[in-house]
Design a protein that fits this description.
This protein has 212 residues and is α/β, with parallel strands linked by helices. Helices cover 40% and strands 16% of the residues. The protein is built from 9 helices and 8 strands. The protein has an 8-stranded parallel barrel with strand order 1-2-3-4-5-6-7-8, surrounded by 5 helices.
Length: 212
Amino acid sequence: MNLTGWRTYLVTQSDRSAGRDTEEIVEAAIDGGVDAVQLREKGRSARDRYELGCRLREVTAAAEVPLLVNDRIDLAAAIDADGVHLGQSDLPIEIARERLGSDAIVGCSTSTVAEAEAAEAAGADYLGVGAVYGTASKDVPAEKNGIGTEPVATIADAVEIPVFGIGGITADNVRPVIEAGATGAAVISAITAADDPAAATAALDEVIADAR
């Protein structure tokens, strides 16, 4: 799958959805033109994530929007997701390829050129780079929280695969991330916490498309 056309990438987290169901947020994001969805849902049991993932798989498949799973290769396989997104402390990219197949989309979180080059060499399809502006959505070491756009630029220059900025990104601050070389942006709160997730998705997409 060619990921260079991706611009907006939703990462789900129900505790930031103002009491709304994750399915509702995902459906709205799809209406707004989101290019990919990642099932994250930290803090929920594996069973809950599996059941939610099965429901999201139906929604995303009907809309022909790729669904990925955060961290868990086994869960990605169980719900027949399109791929998985791995962190630096998760199982290796090579294991994801072995378990999910050559057609699976495999992303990897990075914050340095060394991590990015290693992920690309291991077969990653794209990189998530951040946290660009800092984040409270996940536990991130202080030295990797709010790294700014310069690492995005250096990593984008160092690899051939698409780079997506993540961490505190909104429609108001995404332009410098794209101008630094990112293909698009992965967001949680910018869509999930928005009063109108569909409009928020469309607004983010519009800025990214213009910046590209």
